[in-house]
Structure formats: structure tokens, C-alpha cells
Specification:
Layout: H1 10-22, E1 53-59, H2 72-81, E2 83-89, H3 94-104, E3 110-112, H4 117-122, H5 130-136, H6 138-144, E4 163-164, E5 177-182, H7 183-188, H8 197-210, E6 213-214, E7 217-218, E8 220-223, H9 230-241, E9 251-253, E10 260-262, H10 267-281, H11 294-303, E11 306-312, H12 313-325, E12 333-336, E13 359-362, H13 369-379, H14 382-390, E14 398-399, E15 405-406, H15 409-417, H16 421-425, H17 454-460, H18 463-471, H19 507-526, H20 532-542, H21 546-566
Parallel strand pairs: 1-2, 1-3, 8-11
Antiparallel strand pairs: 3-13, 4-13, 5-11, 5-12, 6-7, 9-10, 14-15
Helix pairs in contact: 1-3, 10-19, 11-12, 19-20
């Protein structure tokens, strides 16, 4: 593949051109593009004899804190590397933008495509990073170690097109997913057990009946976010968590045979969606759940009138900061390991090992791949990781007499309560665009790379949060969940990371099933309960085709092959 811009099949090129035609009116869909740094960057004195260079970057995930290189941390990165990043973020479905790149043959210099990297690889858009890493990137080699072999593209192509941007060797201390409930609710009800869907529902219903208004506005018992791809995070992914399965994307993987099937086919998940249908029928589900946009959803939560959500932590984190900033500590939310019934364990902490496939790559249009990999290598350095996590010494953190980093009380409170902190300082903003260690990893001086330790996690809780946790006889939210040692590790990592080509027998039937799901699941949830079974059963029938069966068999083979390829890595 390498540097030649070629499309691997006529069928793939045709499909991309159809996407171009369909999206021709949306080519300006970018979220927050700060390409104008004014004159600020011109005043930066770059270290050494480096010439300044600007790289374009496209990321499938939005970065609401992005302010170009204008922040103090951005200026330090520019000073150390001479590199400016001009970033572009997807609005709506990232695959549409990525397909446009692939069809046009015109690529950004760096790209983070998440699960759509196959479109770029099949189009010949990506550079094999392995030779560059071996020659120019000692920090990358140090940070990843043996995990580099997890980044091999496929069984037929041992190139490394993307290097993982998940934190390496992370100690997970906070639940990434769960059922969120206001502290005010559990306090008012005497801290009831919140373990099953029935417990969650009863708490919401009881409090809602007691308090139909909050601060003069109608109380919202439960809201979901179904804005485009976010439907997966807030509506459908919870179906497998609530029925004891880990996050394998749209697949359910048998942990003994490693056979795969679309997770919606599991009868127990039907019962989860039946519960959502019941919540809707009884007026406990926000009527705008399937029409509201992300900013509307977050505004509701930030107002303090939403009792419950079902979502990922990263999705609602800024709403909790906003509530804290407004002093609405009782209206912040705790996260609970809710499942269909007590026979299931919430699989949030089921181990995966390092998830390495989704990350950042360098395209064939990059004007200086060596300079680009050296930039990513600098991002993996201790200097850069301390900068991206801690900030600038004396401004964002202090050093004690022994040279140990620490935050003053004011500096820590600023991070907790100022929703503009990341954008204003640049801390945490660039970390997602390069290799980095996770919480719990120590630098050569024995200090943590990140500011997060078990002690500071508890210190960062509000007094209300500590009161709620103490009432449940735990110290941190993770303690409510089944722990890692209660599960066997997944030797394939996570199924949503597994690559397949655009002409694979998986691609077309899978996309058709997804398109059907995006219509049928909301339809089933919003239906009259008497119609739920017929709608859901019709949905399962529609996605139970010979083509889907062939796709499931092929994906099973890929999972089994990954188990074999990864071995002990």
C-alpha cells in the first residue's frame, strides 16, 4: 500500500463516490476549527534550529477545548517542536468525512479515524509507521514496548498504520459506563440499593412524584442521547452492560468459543429495550430523547433537573463540572452498576489489555513524515507527558524542596470547578493526539505521570459525593462495581477494534444491519407496549439474513485469529 493512492476495489470506489454525492452539501461540516492563531505564534522562540511547520489534523472525535496552539501548553509544544497543528473535527457521522477523504485522494497530514481507518487503508492513504518508528522514535518504542505488535493492521498486512492513543498501562479507577442518578434522589430516599433496573426505576419514579419540578422547571426523570452515533453510547450499548456482557461494540463474543453475533440478537437484550419501552409508556423517559441534540441534552443535565442518565462518563463529565461550578452539588450524579436483574454482573471492568488499534496515523499527503513521527515521539517523551498532564511549573503546579510535583489547594479546585480550564490552559487538550501513559504509571523519578492517584481521586470528590459513598459503605464509585479479578481477561482485547477491509463479506451486511437498528430500536422503545414484541421481532428477522450469518462467521474467524496473533502481547 505505502505511498501509492490506490483504491483496492471498484466496488469500494463506487461506494465512496456515492457518499461524496450524498454529502456534497456537507463538505464544510467541521465543529471547531481554529486555524487562525493570529500573531501569537509568531512571537514564540522555537528551541534549537528547528524550522516551524504546520500539520493539518483530522479527528473523528470532537475536542470542545481546542484553541489551536494559543494556550500556554500549546505555546510550549510549539516552542519545543516547532510544530503547529491545524485541527478539524467531525460533525455528525465521522465515516462520511473519512469516505470523502478516501474518494478524493486529498488527505490531512495526521488523522485519527477511530473505527473507520479501513476506509483510508484500503484507499492507500496511510503510511506504514513501523520503519519510521524503528529509526526515529525511541520514546514511542519505550512507551508501547511489546504493545506495538498489537498495532499490526491485519493477518495479511503487518504494517502499523495507526499508533494507539489510549493511555498505556492505565489503572482504571472510575467506571467508564453506568447508570447515573442524582445524589439528591438517593439522599431523599434513604440511600436505597441501586443494583437492578427495577431499583433504578423505583428511585426515579418515587422522587419524580415527590418533586415534579426542580428550580421552577419540570423535572426530567430519565433522559437519553440518541444524536447520531451517540445513540450507540446512551441507548444500545447499555443493553449489553445491563445483561452482563462487556463492551465489544456491536458484537457479542462467546468467551469460550470466540464466536461472534450481533448483540441485539440476545433475548436478554430484548428485555432491556422492553424496560425502556415501559419507562417511556409510563412518562418516565424524556420525550425528547430521540430528537434532542447533544448540546440540548447537556444543557438539561447541567440545569440540575435531570434525575437519571444512562451514558458513558466521558459523555457527561462536563455537565458534572457545570453543576459543581454552579454549586448544585446535590444535583450532581453518582454512577451505579445497574443490570437487568441480580443474576448479571456489570462488565464495565472486564479486562481487555491494552487497546491499541484506534489511534493516530500519518497520511501519504504529509509533507514531512520524518518530522511528523519525531513530533509524535516528542509527545511520548517524559517532558511532553508532564506538560500535557500537569501544565507549566509555577503556573499550573508546584515543585517541593525534593523536586516532587504537587498542586496547591487553589490549583486543584480550579481544575475541579472551572469548566473552561482545559481550553484556557491547554492541559489535557493535546494528550489524545500522541502516545502517553495512564493513571498509576510512574516516571523515572518515581512520580506519577498524571495528577490522578487513589488519594487525589477521593480528595476531588465533593462533600456531598463523599457522604453518598459513605452511605453505601465504599470510598470510590468503582467499589460499587464488579472488579477486574472477578472476570477472565479478553484475549482479543475488544471486538470493536478489529479491522476488516471494505470489500470484506462483513462490511455491507453489517452496515445494512446498523441502518436498520438505528430506525427499529427507537421505534420499539417509543411504541405502544402492546406493539413492542412485533416491532422488535420484525427487527431481528430483518437482520437475520444469510449475508449477516456469513458476516458473523467471518468476524468470528477474525476474533479467533486475533487471539492467535496476539498471543501474550
Amino acid at each position: 500500500m505505502g505511498r501509492f493512492k490506490k483504491v483496492t476495489s471498484i466496488l469500494f470506489l463506487t461506494s465512496l463516490l456515492l457518499v461524496v454525492a450524498a454529502c456534497s452539501d456537507n463538505t464544510d461540516n467541521t465543529s471547531k476549527e481554529n486555524n487562525d492563531d493570529g500573531n501569537k505564534n509568531e512571537d514564540v522562540v522555537i528551541d534549537g534550529d528547528l524550522e516551524p511547520i504546520t500539520f493539518s489534523l483530522f479527528a473523528a472525535d470532537n475536542n470542545p477545548s481546542w484553541d489551536g496552539m494559543n494556550s500556554p501548553v500549546g505555546q510550549e509544544i510549539l516552542k519545543a517542536t516547532g510544530v503547529s497543528l491545524e485541527a478539524d473535527f467531525a460533525i455528525g457521522e465521522p465515516a462520511e468525512r473519512i469516505a470523502l477523504f478516501a474518494a478524493s485522494g486529498d488527505y490531512p497530514d495526521f488523522v485519527l479515524p477511530k473505527g473507520d481507518g479501513n476506509l483510508l487503508v484500503d484507499a492507500g492513504a496511510m503510511i506504514d509507521l513501523r520503519p519510521l518508528i524503528e529509526e526515529h522514535a525511541p520514546n514511542i518504542q519505550r512507551v508501547y514496548g511489546d504493545y506495538l505488535e498489537r498495532m499490526v493492521w491485519s493477518e495479511d498486512d503487518d504494517s502499523i498504520y495507526f499508533i494507539g492513543t489510549n493511555p498505556v498501562d492505565e489503572e482504571y479507577r472510575t467506571p467508564g459506563n453506568g447508570f447515573w442518578l442524582q445524589h439528591a434522589v438517593v439522599k431523599e430516599l434513604g440511600y436505597p440499593e441501586i443494583r437492578t433496573l427495577e431499583d433504578f426505576e423505583n428511585a426515579i419514579r418515587t422522587y419524580y412524584e415527590m418533586y415534579p419540578e426542580i428550580d421552577g422547571q419540570p423535572t426530567i426523570p430519565l433522559t437519553l442521547l440518541a444524536d447520531d452515533w451517540r445513540l450507540l453510547i446512551s441507548v444500545t450499548n447499555p443493553a449489553f452492560f445491563a445483561t452482563g456482557a462487556p463492551d465489544d461494540g456491536e458484537w457479542f463474543i462467546d468467551q469460550d468459543t470466540f464466536e461472534a453475533k450481533l448483540h441485539y440478537k440476545r433475548p436478554e437484550e430484548k428485555e432491556y429495550f422492553r424496560w425502556l419501552n415501559k419507562m417511556n409508556a409510563e412518562g418516565l423517559l424524556d420525550k425528547e430523547s430521540f430528537v434532542q441534540q447533544e448540546d440540548q441534552y447537556k444543557a438539561k443535565i447541567s440545569s440540575g433537573r435531570v434525575l437519571g442518565m444512562i451514558d458513558a462518563e466521558w459523555s457527561i463529565a462536563d455537565t458534572q463540572t457545570a453543576l459543581r461550578e454552579d454549586g448544585k452539588l446535590d444535583r450532581m450524579h453518582g454512577v451505579y452498576p445497574v443490570t437487568l436483574d441480580e443474576t448479571y454482573k456489570h462488565g464495565n471492568f472486564k479486562p481487555t489489555g491494552y487497546l491499541s488499534t484506534w489511534g493516530i496515523g500519518i497520511t501519504v499527503d504529509n509533507p514531512d513524515p520524518v518530522r511528523a513521527i519525531k513530533f509524535l515521539d516528542w509527545m511520548a517523551s517524559d517532558e511532553a507527558q508532564i506538560l500535557n498532564n500537569w501544565g507549566i511549573e509555577g503556573e499550573h503546579y508546584q515543585l517541593d524542596d525534593d523536586g516532587n510535583r504537587y498542586l496547591t489547594d487553589d490549583q486543584r479546585e480550579e481544575r475541579r470547578s472551572d469548566s473552561s480550564f482545559d481550553e484556557r490552559t491547554g492541559i489535557n487538550v493535546f494528550r489524545a493526539y500522541g502516545p502517553h501513559y495512564g493513571n498509576g504509571v510512574l516516571d523515572p523519578t518515581g512520580q506519577p505521570y498524571t495528577i490522578h492517584t487513589p488519594e487525589t481521586l477521593i480528595e476531588d470528590y465533593t462533600e456531598v459525593e463523599k457522604e453518598v459513598l459513605a452511605a453505601y459503605d465504599v470510598e470510590i464509585w468503582k467499589d460499587l462495581f464488579p472488579q477486574e479479578d472477578e472476570f477472565s481477561p479478553r484475549p482479543y482485547g475488544a471486538a470493536w477494534e478489529i479491522n476488516y477491509s471494505s470489500d470484506s463479506p462483513i462490511a455491507v451486511p453489517f452496515q445494512r444491519a446498523q441502518d436498520t437498528m438505528f430506525t427499529r430500536i427507537p421505534q420499539a422503545i417509543l411504541a405502544d407496549p402492546a406493539d413492542f414484541d412485533s416491532i422488535y421481532d420484525s427487527f431481528i428477522e430483518e437482520i437475520s439474513t444469510d449475508a449477516i450469518e456469513a458476516a458473523e462467521k467471518e468476524f468470528s474467524r477474525l476474533v479467533q485469529k486475533r487471539v492467535e496473533l496476539w498471543g501474550g502481547n
